[in-house]
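Blinded run. Sample ID left blank on purpose so nobody reads anything into the name before looking at the predicted structure. Input follows.
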Amino acid sequence: MRLTVFWERMAEHFGAGYADTFARDHVMSDLGGRTVHEALDAGWDAKEVWQVVCVVMDVPRENR
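Blinded prediction complete.
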């Protein structure tokens, strides 16, 4: 998954204004105790990060 697609999905689910705030502030144990930004900066694949966000935040299956 390209980062542009990842950020589009984040904006669609959380809203354009909140997606970045969520990505900077919400620490998830499934990302090794990292935020979305930290996981991406650490080299995690965007698709893996999106899958974790979907599970943790209960994103509806049709939006995954």
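Unblinding after everyone has recorded impressions. The helical segments are 3-14, 16-25, 36-41, 46-56.
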